[in-house]
Specification:
Blueprint: H1 3-8, E1 16-19, E2 23-27, E3 35-41, H2 56-73, E4 79-82, E5 98-102
Antiparallel strand pairs: 1-2, 2-3, 3-5, 4-5
This protein binds guanosine-5'-monophosphate.
Guanosine-5'-monophosphate binds near residues 29 and 90.
Length: about 110
Amino acid sequence: MTLFQKIIDKEIPAKIIYEDDLSLVFEDINPQAPTHLLIIPRKPIVKISDVLEEDKELMGHLIWVAGEVARKIGVEDAFRLVVNNGAKAGQSVFHVHVHLLSGRPFLWPPG
Ligand code: 5GP
């Protein structure tokens, strides 16, 4: 079981910003920007490359949630979404999550 499953199950605490029947949004414990949220599905999908055709709507839901939460906290004009897929790409928790970062300038291309 991953750390994020424990957050979903409320076994370990997190600063939850939003939740619905499909997803959960909470603050990252080690923020890389003034706003750093993690958007996760309740379904324990390991990584993007494991997403099934039947999960397409769920993954779209996560993107909708990102925009909705960004509007609610007033960062809708400037934020970045990041998904790391696989350890070599920086993934450290193996439950799919979208990082929502905002509140500072961002470089392009990303590091
Ligand atoms: P990844 O490296 O897999 O893309 O992102 C995992 C993120 O989870 C990291 O940004 C890390 O700071 C965050 N994280 C790790 N452990 C915890 C925790 O216990 N609580 C919260 N809220 N975030 C965590």
